[in-house]
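Much of what follows relies on a compact textual record of a protein's fold. A record is reproduced here so that you can trace the correspondence yourselves:
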Amino acid sequence: MKALVIGSGAREHALGERLRQERWRVACAPGNAGIARRFPCLPLRLDDPAAAVALARAEEPDLVVVGPEAPLVAGLADRLAAGGFAVFGPTAAAARIEGSKAFAKEVMAEAGVPTAAHATFDQPDAARAHARSLGGRVVVKADGLAGGKGVAVCANVEEAEAAIDAALVRGELGEAGRRLVLEERLEGRELSLMALCDGRSYVLLPPCQDYKRALDGDRGPNTGGMGAVSPPLVSPAPLGPLAEATIAPVVARLADLGTPFRGTLYAGLMLTAAGPRVLEYNCRFGDPETQVLVERIDGFLGEAMLAAARGSLAGSRLGARPGAAAGVVVCARGYPGAPRLGDPLLGIDAAEAVAPLRFAGVGGAPERPVTAGGRVVTVVGHGPDLPAAVALAYRAAALVSFPGARFRGDIGR
């Protein structure tokens, strides 16, 4: 079987490696110089759906896996499916569950999903007044896609007004921030719950926990993700009822709307004292959660993804392997702002001798890679328990070297 994985990050690298372990022939488009050390990378602009269809015709894959959210929201899965390909990833209409925070809140309300109290604004004065009424303890979210940087967790009125003005007055988030969703700020532990969906049914994957803030102790600005662990440090048991409250109703509601969801539905949850609340839905595998998730899935992930793409998940079984996995993201100086680029990426052979590396912001050539993005590489440790997995990940991360390289020191701790 042959798979074409579309994307250029550590998530796509991890998915490609898992499929390769299951004896799929894998190519990635466009990939990056780090991924090209492992399997073929083909040139592709992610904002060019016609080129993606042409590439699929040339490669003739049995399955196309679309990793990033932006091409899905833009309708790449629709174009590929119209071309006759089995596509793992939702249509543009179903991908609105991530592409519009306001739409996601509407679906949650209609489906009876527990979530934070919220309101939607496109005028700064009204948004400021709402934030002041809550004492500034709000989460300000861009309605559209903002590359993981459209969320501000605010502790006071000054922080809330600054986030509102950045989006609605100065336009710093572009089109994505022309409308904002303001939520009450919840307290608790976060949990990432993902499921493969075929439009009507779903198969739950092992739970994960990610770390979004830039600095130790969950301080600093939000990022695309600084690390992840599986199993999470805190998780309700059993998970079945939690999935029935958060995954099943949204799958059913999207089907009722005539937009069945096929792909990975991601529920970002907050486990509060009052019970679980959904923070967000994503229309794809999480990043960096996928990097640890693929180490823990028991069963044939590729077969299940193909079944989901064909609308026939019934009978598919995926479980959780014993042990634990931890991922530590090594990022460039300046991230999540403007990262420093073009530095030689050293020590990766020594690091890979300790633990797997999943490459993201890497350019140059496979034999001479350089930094080319904010999140450069995810180092993944796997062990009999979480402390062992964490220790392995940090041993390897310390060997990755480039000027300004940094990572959080409290992942899984």
About this structure: Residues 188 and 291 are 24 Å apart (CA to CA). The first strand starts at residue 2 and ends at 7. The mean pLDDT is 96. The two ends are 40 Å apart (CA to CA).
